[in-house]
Write a structure and sequence with these properties.
heterodimer; A: about 350 residues; four-stranded parallel beta sheet; 8 strands; globular; B: alpha/beta; about 55% helix
Chain lengths: ~350, ~450
């Protein structure tokens, strides 16, 4: 009988992953759940302080704390570290070279060049390398199982895009809508699909309450953020968060080619722009402005993790582009607190008042 | 490019600039000769005066470069050898920001960027340059407008955001050379990816310059960069002598030519002379710090705004920075330049630089530096503005102490923004560390 952790997870069964994006299909094909580590918020700092300087971002800091506490190694066989930013890469190197967390790790590099041909070619080579590394550590990935995994993740993408596009549904407040969307970060994809189908069975709200806004940032946290948005008479009309909106291909997905590796590459290429992967100076601005217009938003809320360079570099430009499009915005900074600080709640209220969210 | 502008630029770059720099150098040399010794500091390097003249000429030439010749703004780790044969005037925003930091104008420029909505948590080099661009102010007179922006990610991902911003603000064409981070070894698909991008860079640079890149010229530019890197390495290696013939902090300034003139013969000529002077001093037993007692390695960029105070603090304790990972990084890849095909050589060299390598590589490098230079310990500058260099230093410090018996101390500061430097706290840690070394 396989040993199980307190959560009932077979020891070593999961694949843990750091933010933001990596090809999840390989873990699925290996019959393993992917557990993503997005923070988590409110984690008391103990061991990590000896490893990181004070200016590390909260995402890196909390993830390292979880690793050092042994929480990750207790439930996962492997850690996947996409090259999201310099901090995540440094964290990968601390795991792989300095033994932090006591777990083997595999990296995935995002090709960021503007040279489309070089980018496409490298992506496919890097996917092959990633597969080889996963196989070396976890065993062979059968082609037919990979094809099934690609198909099921494709279905997951289609349903997630639909839930985002169609907006609030009866009996599913936005907080729960996001809980469903984000459950994909920790559930087996089959289990998550059942949850999603249940959500989609509910009737679409014909006239959803709340003034639509853009929500931009890495994660819609600290806890209570979405409640505060709702309490201020607003709702998310267009999601530009790294953990949700930027990971779901929203235009039509490329048709399957019959080659699962090629399908994974094409799915990756169809993802919306994210500053952790996209370097073109205008693509993301155009994406956010177009999304804002299509959703008829009246304002924008940027929830930026403290000291997060990928988010911060584009912030002035994205806000400027939205301002030009007539969309005012407010920025809140989060250190991944356990609960919503009053200062953030106050700024959200101010945004609601500014855009007349409560006006009849 | 306009003929009149070209004539004006050539006159300023070849006649006026050198004449002004020459006059300034003569004045500085007289002052240097008349200067009373400042023990325990040894006599200053004569080439320090020449270095300032080179930097003055470089920035002076830039004032009139736009419209006269193609101008590229590039990251410090960009493969500039491709641009040299095409006649580009090359601006290094990082070097410019370092100059601003050392001249204590960085704070004002950072604040200009912050007023435009750029967070104080962004790299202070980036804020300094963006601030200079937005405010139209620089202590070097004027920076020419770019025709081309070349961003190579081998030093950090920060530059990706920085150059996106520059592209939006200047409207110049942006070319990326994305170098996959080497967690482990350089793999064939890494080289193929980077090579392809360097070829694209070459094509774009040709288009902007309106000239064809000739292979013999590219090879010559590569050889020049390689020779300069070797010579720079030899200059640094003179500090293996006991006592070291120069003050290690000076190396942070003398690295300017290997950054901004790499691929030009002027860099080689400078390092040949500097090496001669250092060897002379070594042979004559001239010390950078008289009575040198403590030998240290520095990890990370310098704290530009506090270099003088750091120098005084170390000298007072007869301590010298005999090596720094940052200055050595510019010589370490020299041998890779010779790898056959020029584009392959560029791809391998620029992908293998220190900051694009994992912590295991950095730990080996640090231990090797400390051993070769007979260092007693390592000062780790935990730099708020350089996450790839700084995150992981605590682990490196512990590993070096545990496996190599080399102690280290971490000092938190910033390479350019003086508001993020608590000097008294940093100085206290360094003093206590040196005291503990005995």
């Amino acid at each position: 009988m396989e040993a199980r952790s307190a959560e009932g997870v077979p020891v070593g069964a999961a694949v843990a992953a750091l933010p933001v994006e990596h090809p999840r299909e390989f873990a699925t094909a290996l019959g393993r759940i992917t557990r993503e580590i997005w923070g988590p918020p409110g984690l008391p700092q103990q061991r990590g302080r000896a490893w990181l300087p004070s200016f590390a971002c909260p995402m890196t800091r909390n993830a390292l704390e979880m690793l050092l506490r042994g929480d990750v190694a207790a439930s996962a066989a492997l850690l996947v570290v996409p090259h999201t930013c310099d901090s995540m890469q440094a964290l990968a190197s601390q795991v792989m070279d300095l033994g932090a967390g006591g777990i083997p790790a595999v990296t995935f590099y995002h090709p960021r060049t503007l040279d489309a041909g070089a980018r496409a070619s490298f992506l496919r080579d890097e996917l092959r390398r990633f597969r080889t590394e996963m196989e070396r550590l976890l065993g062979p990935v059968a082609d037919d199982r990979l094809a099934k995994a690609v198909a099921i993740h494709r279905e997951a993408d289609v349903l997630a895009a639909r839930l985002l596009r169609e907006g609030p549904r009866a009996g599913l407040p936005q907080t729960e809508q996001y809980a469903v969307l984000r459950a994909r970060e920790r559930l087996a994809v089959e289990e998550w699909l059942a949850l999603m189908r249940d959500a989609l069975d509910r009737r679409v709200e014909p006239r959803p309450r709340g003034a639509p806004i853009v929500l931009s940032g890495i994660v819609p946290e600290p806890p209570g953020l979405l409640d505060a948005i709702a309490a201020s008479g607003m709702r998310v009309g267009f999601d530009d968060t790294a953990c949700v909106g930027r990971r779901i291909p929203r235009d039509r997905l490329p048709e399957p080619t019959g080659d699962p590796m090629e399908d994974i590459a094409r799915r990756y290429e169809a993802l919306p722009p994210c500053p952790t992967r996209t370097v073109d100076p205008t693509t993301r601005l155009d994406w956010v402005v177009a999304g804002a217009r299509a959703a008829g938003v009246r304002g924008a809320l940027f929830v930026v993790p403290a000291r997060c360079e990928p988010e911060l570099f584009d912030l002035a430009a994205v806000r400027g582009a939205l301002r030009t499009a007539g969309v005012p915005s407010v920025v809140v900074e989060t250190d991944f607190e356990a609960a919503l600080p009053a200062s953030i709640a106050t700024r959200i209220e101010a945004l609601g008042e500014m855009i007349g969210a409560r006006s009849p | 490019m306009g003929l009149l502008r070209r004539i004006r630029h050539e006159a300023e770059a070849r006649l006026v600039g050198p004449a002004i720099a020459g006059l300034n150098a003569a004045r500085r040399l007289r002052r240097l000769e008349a200067k009373a010794p400042r023990p325990p500091l040894g006599p200053p390097l004569r080439n320090g005066v020449r270095l300032r003249a080179i930097v003055e000429r470089y920035y002076f030439a830039g004032r009139t470069a736009d419209g006269a010749r193609p101008v590229a703004w590039v990251t410090s780790g960009a493969p500039v050898e491709v641009l040299r044969p095409l006649g580009y005037y090359v601006v290094y925003p990082e070097n410019h920001a370092a100059v601003c930091g050392a001249m204590r104008t960085a704070r004002d420029l950072c604040e200009a960027a912050e007023r435009a909505g750029h967070s104080r948590d962004l790299c202070s080099y980036a804020r300094t340059d963006i601030g200079a661009l937005l405010a139209g102010r620089t202590p070097v007179g004027r920076l020419p407008k770019p025709d081309l922006l070349v961003c190579c990610t081998n030093i950090c991902q920060t530059v990706a955001g920085w150059y996106r911003t520059l592209a939006r603000e200047t409207g110049a064409r942006l070319v990326f050379v994305d170098t996959p981070f080497l967690q482990g070894d350089l793999l064939p698909h890494h080289t193929a990816y980077v090579r392809r991008q360097v070829e694209t860079l070459a094509a774009e640079a040709e288009r902007v310059a309106g000239r064809e890149l000739r292979m013999p010229d590219l090879e010559r530019s590569l050889r020049s960069a390689q020779d300069a890197a070797f010579l720079w390495g030899e200059c640094l290696a003179t500090a293996r002598a006991r006592p070291a013939p120069w003050v290690g902090i000076e190396a942070f300034f003398h690295m300017a030519p290997i950054v901004v003139l790499r691929g030009l013969d002027e860099a080689q000529a400078y390092y040949r002379d500097l090496l001669g002077e250092l060897r002379e001093r070594s042979a004559a037993g001239v010390a950078g710090i008289e009575g040198e007692r403590v030998r240290l390695v520095w990890d990370n960029l310098p704290i530009w705004s506090e270099l003088r105070r750091l120098g005084d603090l170390l000298a007072a304790r007869r301590a010298n920075l005999v090596a720094a990972t940052y200055t050595h990084a510019w010589s370490e890849c020299a041998d890779l330049f010779s790898a056959g095909d020029p584009f392959d050589a560029i791809a391998a060299t620029y992908t293998s630089v220190l900051l694009n390598r994992d912590l295991a590589h950095r730990a080996r490098g640090l231990a090797d530096l400390a051993r070769r230079y007979g260092a007693h310990g390592v000062l780790f500058h935990s730099d708020r503005s350089c996450k790839p260099y700084s995150l992981g230093q605590h682990g490196l410090r512990d590993l070096l102490a545990r496996e190599h018996g080399i102690p280290g101390v971490v000092v938190e500061a910033d390479h350019s923004d003086p508001r993020s430097v608590a000097w008294e706290a940093a100085a206290g840690r360094i003093e206590a560390f040196i005291e503990g070394l005995g």
